[in-house]
């Protein structure tokens, strides 16, 4: 018993020390968000759920955009009971399904689910798949969910964001990670058709490398978007919440084995942050007055604003432009945009008439895009 209690005490002491170290400096902003509206993707669990709770507790209107509506409804009920804020809403959004993305955006413009303003969009949803799979457009699921869907959603909502009053600041937050620092976008295999790693008995789909590529693509888009939105009321920030205990790894095959599953649980306990702590840098990026006038920056897990992004490829204008053009084509962006306008009884946009000079001068959506 003495050995057992001593071992438990030692382990708990190590856990407490690591937990305190990973927590970062204390941060609990007392900011009233009444009247403001935030969209959180992947809000039914993990950081997205905790972020929705933090925003609702400060009286904000929160739109929980989730693929699994039943899970969202259950999470929403708990948030409302905890915060006493009934302005928390579940909306169906599957980022890998581009029709679902357009339908979600359309309902924010018109009908009973329309909103009068959007103060922030937090691109939090992400997936890590064990095997290669594609959506109905033939795009690999991780790339579609972690990046392409966010690209399309941002573009479809940009009109609404730019229509906001000049004194109304809007934040677009991309949740990312510093694991992208040693990656490089491979345009020859962007769809991960040849991402294979060697195994002990047979070769496997390299899910971790593909995940990193999808997050690098997202960061590349965020960097380019921040450049194009200079001079507007919209701020784009990328936030790294640090290694966090979420359900991101639940689809991996290692969870099928007892030993590896428990090893990962121990790793999670000692070397990752809880969502309650990981959400702090996200809240800082989203609502803190210190970040009102900061654009195109990377915020790390301890709320440090880094002007230098973790991957030098993000500074390459040609790479950013190539990814942008590829994303427009793969998401069928122009078709979805004009379908959205058709549903709103607005005239279709003629993309062929946009000149370089008008793009440079225009503060409209079409010029910026």
Give the key terms.
single chain; 369 residues; alpha/beta; eight-stranded mixed β-sheet; two-stranded antiparallel sheet; globular; NAD(P)-bd_dom_sf
Task: Write the topology of this structure.
Blueprint: H1 2-23, E1 37-41, H2 46-57, E2 61-66, H3 69-83, E3 88-92, H4 98-109, E4 120-123, H5 141-162, E5 170-175, E6 196-197, E7 204-205, H6 207-228, E8 234-239, H7 258-271, H8 275-287, E9 297-299, E10 305-306, H9 317-330, H10 333-343, H11 356-361, H12 365-368
Helix pairs in contact: 2-3, 2-8, 4-5, 4-10, 5-6, 6-9
GO molecular function: oxidoreductase activity
InterPro entries: NAD(P)-bd_dom_sf (IPR036291), SDR_fam (IPR002347)
Keywords: Oxidoreductase
Description:
The chain has 369 residues and is an alpha/beta fold. The chain has one domain (36-346): Rossmann fold (3-Layer(aba) Sandwich), CATH 3.40.50.720. Helix content is 45%, strand content 11%. It contains twelve helices and ten strands. The strands form two sheets. It has an eight-stranded mixed sheet with strand order 3-2-1-4-5-8-9-10, sandwiched between helices. Helix 2 links the parallel strand 1 (37-41) and strand 2. It is globular. 40% of the residues are buried.
- Given the helix and strand composition, which structural class is it? alpha/beta
Question: What is the CATH architecture term?
Answer: 3-Layer(aba) Sandwich
What general outline do the C-alpha atoms trace? globular
Total of domains = 1
The helix count comes to 12
Whole-Å distance between the termini? Answer: 67 Å
Uncertain spans, ≥5 residues at pLDDT below 50? 14-21, 357-361
Helix content: 40-55%
CATH superfamily membership:
NAD(P)-binding Rossmann-like Domain
Q: Using the coordinates above, name the CATH class.
A: Alpha Beta
Overall pLDDT metric:
86
CATH topology: Rossmann fold
Which radius of gyration do the C-alpha atoms yield?
Answer: 21 Å
Beta strand count = 10
Largest sheet: 8 strands, mixed
Sheet with most strands: strand arrangement: 3-2-1-4-5-8-9-10
Secondary-structure element string: HEHEHEHEHEEEHEHHEEHHHH
> Strand portion, in percent?
5-15%
